[in-house]
Specification:
Removes 5-oxoproline from various penultimate amino acid residues except L-proline. The structure is a single chain. The protein is of the alpha/beta class. It has one domain: Peptidase C15, pyroglutamyl peptidase I-like (Aminopeptidase, 3-Layer(aba) Sandwich). Helix content is 29%, strand content 20%. The chain contains five helices and ten strands. The protein has a six-stranded mixed sheet. Strand 2 and strand 3 form a beta hairpin. Helix 3 packs across helix 5.
């Protein structure tokens, strides 16, 4: 199996992005399966084009996107991406779409093709804080997850796609700052567990991991 892990460069003036920090520490093989890493620009359209070009040149079975969700307390596999860009800040190219569909004729949403509940369960069993997310936001991460799923659906039907948001890494937060964060070792451990789940499982569990509000 060939697995592509994508991550984003820092944005909005930050010096680091936990997704890139984690991706740089993922081993080149896991359980005998090949792992490639691609760092993407934090830019609505450029990030998708970079992956499109990669898939044109390389065989791939799974693409797992990683991104930063500052303020979250744990690793959150995303269940769904919605067809809207609504950026509260510009991307790294200065582009700031507001209330714009990602694809004018596209479906309202695309669901992850990965076993997101099993990922959460496996991380929790390994004492890695994790929760299922039902909103990937309306910034570049959601745009990428939606556009990647559409690309797979229309052009690469055998490629499974999905996205995982990461909280801040400890290294990004001042010691006196109360903003939630996890150690880089914990983040790497969690993503490696998620990759192993994707390798071993093609169907998801039916445990209730939703929320009331």
């Amino acid at each position: 199996m060939n697995i592509l892990i994508t991550a984003f460069e820092p944005f909005h003036g930050a010096e680091t992005n936990p997704s890139a920090m984690v991706a740089s520490r993922i081993p080149p093989t896991i359980n005998g399966h090949s792992i490639a890493v691609l760092i993407l620009p934090t830019a609505f359209h450029l990030c998708v084009e970079k992956v499109r070009h990669y898939l044109e040149r390389n065989a791939c079975d799974v693409v797992i996107g990683l991104g930063q969700a500052g303020g979250r307390k744990c690793i959150t596999p995303e269940r769904v991406a919605i067809n809207i860009d609504d950026a509260v800040i510009p991307d790294n190219q200065g582009y700031q779409p507001i209330d714009r569909p990602i694809l004018k004729d596209g479906p309202p949403a695309y669901f992850s093709q990965l076993p997101v509940k099993r990922m959460v369960q496996a991380m929790r069993e390994a004492s890695v804080p994790s929760a299922l997310s039902n909103s990937a936001g309306t910034y570049v991460c959601n745009h990428f997850m939606y556009a990647l799923a559409h690309l797979a659906y229309t052009t690469y039907p055998n490629v499974r796609t999905g996205f995982i948001h990461l909280p801040y890494a400890h290294e990004q937060i001042d010691k006196d700052d109360s903003t939630p964060s996890l150690s880089l070792d914990t983040l790497v451990k969690g993503i490696e567990i998620a990759i192993r789940v994707v390798i071993d499982e093609k169907t998801d569990s039916h445990e209730a991991l939703g929320t009331i509000s």
